[in-house]
């Protein structure tokens, strides 16, 4: 009589130390890859955020009807390192009497010019144009009357700025011209609200 004995059951081999090492290695690889992503991201984001562009929220009504309260703007901080500000640029700058505050206004007068406000008009003159010219702002303002009666001569590093809402703007008519060093950058993109998203170009006078 023949007997068949079942083959002995093979028990799975388990090497606890090897499996543990594998798990530790996977965790180390995951942490290392995550750190690399964070470092690379910061290396890109920080220079862009602090040296190239910066976000700002509009506060108040001084730039209506072109910019409204709570609109989200991206400000170009690099252009003025290579080029001079131009007339018509909308700029963000540090308030001369409290540099922790940021204002947004439009450049009206350039260095070396004389800005005359009279009878609701703005007249710009300089050594090459002594008789001056009336600044036409029809491209970005409608039926605007500029309050004031004054004449301001700008030095070689000074800019005369005003809000588009001339009757509700604290600007160079009150606190005088600003210097280029006060300017943070130029309004570049309106990112919010979506329906008013826009890339800004300099007006042509």
TrEMBL record:
Give residue ranges for domain Peptidase S26. Answer: 32-192
Q: Which GO terms describe its molecular function?
A: serine-type endopeptidase activity; signal peptidase activity
Stretches that traverse the bilayer: 30-52
* Reactions it catalyzes: Cleavage of hydrophobic, N-terminal signal or leader sequences from secreted and periplasmic proteins
Q: Where are the coiled-coil regions?
A: none
Pfam families according to UniProt:
Peptidase_S26
Which EC class is this protein assigned?
hydrolase
The compartments listed are: Membrane
Q: Where is the active site?
A: 62, 105
Under Enzyme Commission nomenclature, its number is 3.4.21.89
Membrane topology term reads:
Single-pass type II membrane protein
Instruction: List keywords of the entry alphabetically.
Output: Hydrolase, Membrane, Protease, Transmembrane, Transmembrane helix
Checking Gene3D superfamilies in the record gives: Umud Fragment, subunit A (2.10.109.10)
What domain of life? Bacteria
GO BP, sorted A to Z: signal peptide processing
Q: Can you list the GO cellular component terms from the UniProt entry?
A: membrane
Principal location listed in the UniProt entry: membrane
Query: Is the keyword Transmembrane helix assigned to this protein?
Result: yes
Give the family this protein belongs to, as stated in its UniProt record.
Belongs to the peptidase S26 family.
Q: What PANTHER family does the entry give?
A: CHLOROPLAST PROCESSING PEPTIDASE, SIGNAL PEPTIDASE I
Q: What is this protein called?
A: Signal peptidase I
Q: Which gene encodes it?
A: lepB
């Amino acid at each position: 009589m023949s007997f068949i004995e079942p083959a002995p059951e093979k028990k799975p081999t388990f090497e606890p130390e090897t499996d543990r090492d594998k798990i530790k290695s996977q965790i180390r690889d995951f942490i290392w890859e995550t750190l690399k992503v964070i470092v690379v991201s910061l290396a890109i984001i920080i220079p862009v955020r602090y040296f190239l562009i910066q976000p700002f929220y509009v506060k108040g009504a001084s730039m209506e009807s072109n910019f409204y309260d709570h609109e989200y703007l991206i400000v170009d901080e690099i252009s003025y390192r290579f080029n001079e500000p131009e007339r018509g640029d909308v700029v963000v700058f540090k308030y001369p009497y409290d540099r922790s505050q940021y204002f947004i206004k439009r450049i009206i007068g350039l260095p070396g010019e004389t800005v005359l406000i009279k009878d609701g008009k703005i007249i710009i003159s300089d050594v090459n144009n002594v008789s001056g010219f009336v600044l036409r702002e029809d491209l970005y303002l409608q039926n605007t009357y500029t309050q004031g009666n004054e004449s301001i001569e700008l030095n070689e590093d000074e800019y005369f700025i005003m809000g588009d809402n001339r009757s509700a703007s604290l600007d160079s008519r009150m606190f005088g011209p600003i210097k280029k060093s006060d300017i943070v950058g130029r309004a570049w993109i309106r990112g919010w609200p979506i329906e008013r998203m826009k890339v800004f170009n300099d007006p042509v006078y």
